[in-house]
Give the backbone structure.
Amino acid sequence: MKQNVYYEDFYKSFRSLRPNQFSNRGLHTLYNYLIEYENSIGEEFDLDVIGICCDYSEYKNFQELKSNYLDIKTLEDLKDKTLVLPIEDTEGFIVQNF
């Protein structure tokens, strides 16, 4: 049995379980990506806040990311290794952890 999760549900789940994991804009970016991904593969996922937090990270800018991944020199290097989701109207982005 599946239940549709709308953005408000997604947002509330993250804020109750992991309130500081993603910014509001980061959550919106991630939600839109996951919905698009579900639609593209024709499969629905269960909402797993902890699993999503393990799979994705938000960075405020490229310099913040470089402190965690010393081998990454450019944004293109990063895009060659993993999924990068720009966060609209910011310098930030969501990265699928690798």
